[in-house]
Amino acid sequence: MDERLRHNISVSGRKQLVLEGVLHVDSFDESEITLETNLGMLVLKGEGLHITNLNLEQGNLAAEGYFSSFQYHESKDKGKAKAKGLLSRILK
Fold first, then answer.
1. Per CATH, which fold does 3-90 belong to?
2. Confidence band (pLDDT; 50, 70, 90) for 77?
């Protein structure tokens, strides 16, 4: 498997999280961590969240707190590419 496509999430007791495949952390606070992964945008929600380790060169993130949800969204760049393609087809 190509290391750039590696994507794993490990959660222990909803209190500790280890994530592989992180490209960029967009924002974070005690209730939400928003980040870009190699499989799209990922929003982690919970209480008392904090990032304990971040290595973007290796694409790893570790966080602690109480995790209540994980939600994937399409990457921002993918949406723009689709919109541009649709607009160019309409204007032909």
1. Immunoglobulin-like (2.60.40)
2. low
* β-bridge partners, 40: 37
Contact 41, 76 (CB under 8 A): yes
Residues 58, 49: Cα–Cα separation, whole Å: 22
pTM to 2 decimals? 0.76
- 70: Cβ–Cβ under 8 A, 6 or more apart, which residues? 9, 42, 43, 44, 45
Could you give the 3-state DSSP secondary structure of residue 32? strand
Query: Helices in 1-92 by DSSP H: which ranges?
Result: 76-90
CB 18 within 8 A of CB 64: no
